[in-house]
Design a protein that fits this description.
It contains ten helices and four strands. Strands 1-2-4-3 form a four-stranded mixed beta sheet, sandwiched between helices. It has one domain. It is an alpha/beta fold. Strand 3 and strand 4 form a beta hairpin.
Length: 202
Amino acid sequence: MATYTSSLARVLVCQLLAVGVAPAAADQSSGAATGTPSSIAVPRASEDVARDALSSDTPASRLLMSDPATSHVLNEALSEAWRQLGEPGCQALLSELKDEKGHPLGGNLSKGAADLKAHLARLVFVDGTETRACAKGALAATVPRSRVVHVCSSRFRWTWQQNRRHVIAGLIHEALHTLGLGENPPSSAEITSLVLKRCGTS
């Protein structure tokens, strides 16, 4: 597993729990699911494990992945996403983007989270291999206002090898959805493009 920076290590605690699903075939683009949780077709095991991990007294991100290689890559990507979220331009996304009611996303931060960095540390990442979003070519997906992000394992690893910036932007993209940001409009590509513009080029 990659080593976090000392400040990140105090916030993010990685738990690797098997959820018993098979690895996905390589897919194509990054994106997020929309609609109700049932539209993602979350495997029951993943739902149960994620629900258990969402205890209000545990503020750390949890990586509930069945594949150790994906967990390793996700760990590295989250570390860099967490760093980028500390940049002023990235934080500005909270006021620039709105939820479905037209309210700035900053008003929807999870309990106890002062900013996007702290909110990211309260999300749960699960294996999304069997979800429709992954089958359609997503990198990762979530439902607006959910604290659970579904990672498309094989595509996530493959994209990390090809374009790390895209993966990091994709994680921030999904974090914005967990705050209530919808899609179409803005399109998935527009959201990722804005994240890349606001959150640095590293």
